[in-house]
Amino acid sequence: MSDSGIETILVVEDERQIREAVVTALECEGFAVCEAATAGHAAVQAASRLPHLVILDLGLPDRDGVDFIRDYRTWSAVPILVLSARSEEESKVEALDAGADDYLTKPFGVAELLARVRALLRRRPTELQGAAPKIEFGDYAIDCVNRVVTRAGVPIHLTQIEYRLLVYMAANPGRVLTHRHLLAQVWGGQAVENHQYLRVYVGHLRQKIEDTPTQPRFILTEIGVGYRFES
Amino acid sequence: MKRPSAAMQQLIYGIFIRIFIASQPMNLLPKPVYSPAMAGHLWAVLVISSGSLLLSPARAFLDLSNVALLYVLAVVIIAVRFGRSPAIAAALFGSLSFAYVFVPPHFSLAITETQYLLSAVIMLVVAILVGHLTSRLKQHADFASRKTGESAELYGFAQALAGALTRDEVIQSASRFLEASVQAQDIRVITPSEMDQELDPLTKPALVRQCAEKKMFISSPTRDGHSYAYVLLNAASGTQGVLRFKTALAGVSSDAAVEYIETAASVLAVALERSHFAEIARATEIKHAAESLRSSVLSALSHDLRTPLTALVGMVDTVVLGKVSPERQKTVLEAIRNQALSISRQMTNLLEMARLSAGKLELKTAWQPVDEVLGATLQQVRAQWKDREITVDVSAELPPINIDAVLIERVLWNLIENAIKYAPADTPIEIAARQLAGDVELSICDSGPGIPAEAIDKIFDLFQRGRVESDVPGIGLGLSIAKTIVEAHGGNITARNRFGGGSCFRIRLPVGTPPDFDEMELPV
């Protein structure tokens, strides 16, 4: 655990081959790994081992993975990385809405898996400190106290909504933010179904901060899911 | 002579009045709502009385028999124009007028001579006979012309049904016909399987069953002067159901009207039967297509996937033997990884195609900017092919389009992947998006070998590959998936070779009418 400096990861996957491949990859990277093949076992492991990250397959034999996430989120804020098959487009969004932090579509490469794992583990302490008053990415800086966004020192004009959207995304780098989630955060709960709002404002925001808006560097689109901010 | 003649007159009049009354119910034809019978009788009285008055000054010059013939002529005209009952009225009134005006003594009903009485009676009998025969002829002629009209209507109906392919179209077409011809409302065809169920409050299951079992026309009157009609739909292969509709009571009150409805019902039954068989044929066709797809999938699996798998096993075995140098081992392992990923992509395509062709493709559309979808696709392409040169030219101010982004991303990915696979690694892939009239056009062009001329027409077909023997892995699904998806969006996809080498794939998606985005600004 964190005392020894080694981070523990719980891998919940019912298919043995995939579980072994993931576990091997993680162990080679020096993580402590515990495994579970069912949601029931995973709940026990999560409570007893208190992992720093959960890697969860959505198609579990005993329970829906999304239900597991909802239960887990009632008592833990530990990041969850979801593994999903291509056909599970909807359950993927559902899992993210339920509180999962990121997802990987099978088949995935080990490099990709490790990159996501590291990103999620890295993000953890900043969240514990609360949102930083100053967020930086690329040559941009957001002064959250004075509500000013600058690029290499030059202020950029953003509308209220654009500002809120940018700050929320920039404060959650690397995390997949679903359409619903962003709408609820930026516009409020009543707007969660109006995905066009979001697309229009993300478009505006990209025009203002991306060098080539069609090939964005910061605000990446996760088709059918939402957006991911890369700082 | 006077008294018996008066008594005789009474007797004759009595007999004719009885005939007149008895003739009424013999009329089988449905009476139109506005009955011209009254008008006919009025005309009869008017024609006879005015004629009598006009001719009366000339009575001295006219022979009595000629006058009688004129009366008969009037009766014939009235019979032709108004039918039997006014004709008989005209005959009766005519003979009275004849006796009153022309038979001496003038302007008296008294007939002094037997000869005069005889001519009055003969005139009456002749007038009635001629009137009766004429009106019957007219009736037949009317009947025939009405039948012709009905036949023409039924013919039109049958023709409309011939154009209807599905059961719903047949029923729609029948509804239109019944609404127009018998002012039917609440039209419904109850299928044999629905007969035992409670359908809707308008339908009485007992009547439906009675209609089906006794094979008869049933009408049940409603309080508002209408009637619910139940007609059996019987065709060669058996009962197709029961037709139920509501119509005015008069529409089902005569045998002729019922016969007409039953004829229409039998035409409808045959059309329903045909649509049923057509549906079976279509289902068989789909099944057949599914079977041919399955065999194509099997051949794809056996050849196109087994080959790379064999290579994969071979490469792994080489590594397992442990006789490969470490550097070489790394190359082999990378090759294994690429091979496995390529198999995985082909599996994805196979599954995707199976899903797309399994039935109706349900699009989860939303209005979104094209460049967002394109950007997301490129993001993934770059993750896989970091160094490939890709130029992107998206015109500014492209309108948003209503698309299923996940599926359109598959299309773009398939096309870009194809371009990257087939064109030499040092040539750029050119991607462009622009608006062309009511469409947004996306093009993906490469400078590769192009598509062989003989394959260009079939390139979007299932399991068709531009180059049959090619070292580029694939099973010929990517483009047909792209085509299926684009067409489901109401767009089209085309392929052509570029002048100077290479190929270009163009997708056109309709722009439609996007919602007004300005209205969506919320108070901050």
Automatic annotation (TrEMBL), chain A:
Pfam families: Response_reg, Trans_reg_C. This is Two-component system, OmpR family, KDP operon response regulator KdpE. SMART domains: REC, Trans_reg_C. Residues 132-231 form the OmpR/PhoB-type domain. Residues 132-231 bind DNA. InterPro entries: CheY-like_superfamily, OmpR/PhoB-type_DNA-bd, Sig_transdc_resp-reg_receiver, WalR-like, WH-like_DNA-bd_sf. The modification 4-aspartylphosphate is found at D57. It comes from Aromatoleum tolulyticum. One of its GO terms (cellular component) is protein-DNA complex. The keyword tRNA-binding does not apply. It is found in: Cytoplasm. It comes from the Bacteria. PROSITE patterns: OMPR_PHOB, RESPONSE_REGULATORY.
TrEMBL record, chain B:
InterPro entries: GAF-like_dom_sf, HATPase_C_sf, HATPase_dom, His_kinase_dom, HisK_dim/P_dom, HisK_dim/P_sf, Histidine_kinase_KdpD, KdpD_sf. Keywords: ATP-binding, Kinase, Membrane, Nucleotide-binding, Phosphoprotein, Transferase, Transmembrane, Transmembrane helix, Two-component regulatory system. GO terms for molecular function: ATP binding; identical protein binding; phosphorelay sensor kinase activity. Its EC number is 2.7.13.3. PROSITE patterns: HIS_KIN. The chain crosses the membrane at residues 6-21, 33-55, 61-80, 87-103, 115-133. This is histidine kinase. The keyword Phosphoprotein applies. One of its GO terms (cellular component) is plasma membrane. It comes from Aromatoleum tolulyticum. It is a multi-pass membrane protein. It is found in: Membrane. It catalyses: ATP + protein L-histidine = ADP + protein N-phospho-L-histidine. Residues 300-513 form the Histidine kinase domain.
